[in-house]
Specification:
With 49 residues, this protein is mainly alpha-helical. The protein has 2 helices and no strands. The longest helix is centred in the N-terminal third of the chain and has 19 residues. It is elongated.
Length: 49
Amino acid sequence: MNLELGMALLLLIVWVVLAFVAAIPSGWVHVPLALGCVLAARGIVRGKR
């Protein structure tokens, strides 16, 4: 697994914890979701073939 996919997985876990476990009613909670999706897409596109 490359670094980008690892960071994407970590950011998505952080988002789940902040959005559903801590239930913070703020918009900034979704920033890790956006960053995690972008990093996951980059990791898939730039991954080894």
